[in-house]
Amino acid sequence: MLLEYAAQAAGGAILEIGCGTGRTAIPLAEAGFEVVGVDLHEGMLELARRKAETAGVEIRWIAGDAAALNLTSPAGFAYMTGNGFQHFLTNEDQNQLFSAVSRNLKKGGVFAFDTRFPGSEELMQPETEEYWRTAEETDGSRTNLYTIARYDALTQIQHYTTIRRQENGTEERTHIDLRYTYPQELLRLLEQAGFEAEGLYADWQRSPLRPDSYSMVCVCRKK
């Protein structure tokens, strides 16, 4: 899907929001597209720069908040992968994101992004410590991973704690908050932001969205 819409972006760069280490931006640049990647985390961008240099491609990397982005020339296609939309936790955060995308996208340009689908299985996880999986470290040791999930129905935010418990008894905990958005809610947000939804799918291959879907991929076009 990314290549398809990138090819349709006549006369404009491809903008990736939350580009991370360049996992998708670099292949697009290798395919001959002009790519701009923006991310908050300078450490990830530094790795992306090294990967792009190794691949022999030039990409404009921008460190900063996507909500404050102002490109000198609007992009022809914008996208966001990895469920990055869920990191915009409040209504204001979401509105600012859509405003920024609209500001930096040509009229008629497509914005595609994914987010986890707010299905019952995803949101009704027990608030107790649950075994997730076992990971093998580079030194050959094994680490057991556990998760604790607590969903706040008022804010639509899932509070995740991941516990890494190593064989030597040491333990590390990390926390992340993820906002869930319902399909009809998302369609209304897009309409208010000046976008026309072209489709909501279960994956990037355009599989039909179902009540038991894990992911929701949105494709919309700037009016």
Written overview of the protein:
This protein is an alpha/beta fold and 223 residues long. It has two domains: 159 residues, Vaccinia Virus protein VP39 (Rossmann fold, 3-Layer(aba) Sandwich), CATH 3.40.50; 53 residues, Single Sheet (N-terminal domain of TfIIb). The protein is 24% helix and 37% strand. The chain contains six helices and eleven strands. The strands form two sheets. A seven-stranded mixed beta sheet has the order 3-2-1-4-5-11-10, sandwiched between helices. The protein has a four-stranded antiparallel beta sheet with strand order 6-7-8-9, with no helix packed on it. The mean pLDDT is 94.
Structural class: alpha/beta
CATH class category label of the largest domain: Alpha Beta
Helix and strand element order: HEHEHEEHEHEEEEHEE
The main β sheet shows up as:
7 strands, mixed
Cα-atom radius of gyration:
19 Å
CATH-derived architecture of the largest domain: 3-Layer(aba) Sandwich
**What is the overall number of helices?**
6
Total strands: the figure is: 11
Overall geometry comes to globular
CATH topology of the largest domain: Rossmann fold
Task: Assign the CATH superfamily of the largest domain.
Answer: Vaccinia Virus protein VP39
- Stretches where pLDDT is under 50 for at least 5 consecutive residues are none
Biggest sheet strand order reads 3-2-1-4-5-11-10
> Average pLDDT, to the nearest integer?
94
Strand-residue proportion: 35-45%
